Amino acid sequence: MSQKSGYMEALKCRECGRKYPLEAVHVCEYDFGPLEVVYNYDKIRKSLNREVITGRPQTMWRYRELLPIAGQPTVGLEVGYTPLIKADRLAEKLGIRGLWIKNDTVNYPTLSFKDRVVSVAMSRAAEMGFKTVACASTGNLANSVAANAAAAGWDAFVFIPADLEQGKVINSLIYGAEVIAIKGHYDEVNRLCAEIAGKYGWAFVNVNMRPYYAEGSKSMGFEIVEQSGWKIPRHTVVCMASGSLLTKIYKSYREMIEIGLVDDTEHQVHGAQATGCSPISTAHKAGMDFFKPVKPDTIAKSLAIGTPADGFYALKAMKESGSSCDDVTDDEIREGISLLAECEGIFAETAGGVTVGVAKKLIASGKIPAEDEAVLCITGHGLKTLDAVVGHTGEANIIKPSLREFESLLSNVKKVAVN
Ligand SMILES: *Cc1c(COP(=O)(O)O)cnc(C)c1O
Ligand SMILES: [Zn+2]
To answer: Is 61 part of any domain?
Structure first.
């Protein structure tokens, strides 16, 4: 088996521990628990160290042994290794000593962290012989599946809620994918996709391929640690839809400790949601282990999952690490987007506004102490969610092509310095 499975050993049920072969399956037959990839960490420890990693190309595949593929990647070879930016001006605004932005708004090729999970899922699907890829998406996943399928020459079916931002819909259509817009919330899209996945032999990245797909999110955590000088950040703030990204970033830190890449220093991974869709945050704040499903109503459509598949595990990870969790209103999300743009020159989508807004709250309340340092995971680009900020940015000054008009305008604009 090891020849064909690389550093993976099996799939394993997170609930009962039963093992399954490394196929396109995602739930346990006995208790419907989610399946997760098990690795041979002894084998990984022998072949992966800091020197080997830093000697490789600057993509997320420098952590290949800790990602669920058997051989070499074949889809999304350029993904990852996005910048970790020192955000001094935003740090001052939020009142914290040290702040960094992990900037996945510039991920390749579709400007969100979903490029990580899709390239892992499709590289694994290629190993299994699939040629058709599909997904249930809140927007960014559909974009990445569509683009990567186009580049790989595969057929793609992407399923989205019908009320998504135009930028997200166009960004799937342009690559020639079949876009199916469902009149309903993401949770209904997802339910339909579970039925379709059972009937058609497609690689549904976040249904039957979910155990592999989800592991791709770990790469964001691996890179953060490496780019922080081989140190786990004291605080990481992560926005949540299904809760998978947060769960996997936490796992990535544990794995790096496990294989000896980094010291086990104190760390917390705080969750962020939009108040209009905050099942995980609401449960966490109430001290509950289980969330109550909600009907989403928020401008953060990429995070609008009312029944989060990994909500239970995200709550568990936050509890285990003594982390905090909070949520922000639509106005606070827009404020977060503006703060990040004006302080750091980074235009994030609504999900980024959620992360910044929640970080601001956690710092203000002392849950992230002002003398500490934090990393904010900024997961997608703002040009795809213009709908959310139209009418909230101020307006362009329209004048005739005349110096007199310009100077009369200038006398009314306080900000401009004339040298
Ligand atoms: C999907 C998505 C998330 C959250 O992903 P989960 O792993 O489902 O919690 C965060 N940010 C953006 C921009 C996304 O598209
Ligand atoms: Zn089970």
So the answer is: no
Residue 362 belongs to some domain of the structure: yes
The predicted pLDDT at position 1 comes to 40
What is the number of structural domains in the chain? Answer: 1
Burial of 191 (C-beta count, 10 Å sphere; 0-12/13-18/19+): middle
Q: Which ligand is nearest to the CA of 243?
A: 1
| Residue 248, in any domain of the structure | yes
Q: How far apart are CA 330 and CA 392, in angstroms?
A: 12
- Residue 380 and residue 141 in contact, taking contact as beta carbons nearer than 8 Å: no
Atom of ligand 1 nearest to the CA of 314: 9
Pocket of ligand 1 from Cβ distances under 6 Å: 112, 114, 140, 239-245, 302-303, 349, 351, 379-380
**CATH number for position 372:** 3.40.50.1100
Residue-level pLDDT at 277: 98
CA 320 to chain centre: 21
Q: How many A from CA of 35 to the centre of ligand 2?
A: 8
Ligand (nearest to CA of 118): 1
Ligand nearest to the CA of 27: 2
The size of the chain, in residues, is 419
CA of 380 to the centre of ligand 1 (A): 8
Residue 148 clears pLDDT 60, i.e. is over it: yes
- What is the residue whose two structure tokens read 């032999």? 201
Residues of the domain holding 380: 84-107+214-388
Q: Which atom of ligand 1 is closest in space to residue 114's alpha carbon?
A: 15
Q: Ligand 2 centre and the CA of 247: distance in Å? A: 19
Residue 412: pLDDT over 90 = no
Structure pTM? 0.96
Q: Which atom of ligand 1 is nearest to the CA of 112?
A: 13
Query: What are the structure tokens assigned to 84, written together?
Result: 């970790």
pLDDT digit string, tens, across residues 332-372: 999 999 999 999 999 999 999 999 999 999 999 999 999 99
